Amino acid sequence: MPGESRLPYLSVTNSSPEPMQLPRRTGGRRLPPGRHRSPHRLTLPPDAPALVLAVPGSASAPSAQIVAQIAESAGESCSGAQVRVGYLEGSTQSLAQALLFDEAPRSATALQGVVVPLLAGPHPVCDPAIEDIISQAAAPLLLAAQLGPHPLMAEALHARLAEAGLARESRARGLSIVAAANGVLVLADRGEEAVQAAAVSAVLLAGRLAAPTAAASLGDQASIESGLARLRDAGVSKPAFAPCVIGPESDPAELTDLAGSLGALCSKPLGAHPTVAQLVAMRYGAALAGLRLAGSAG
Question: Which residues pair with 84 in a beta bridge?
Answer without folding.
Answer: 52
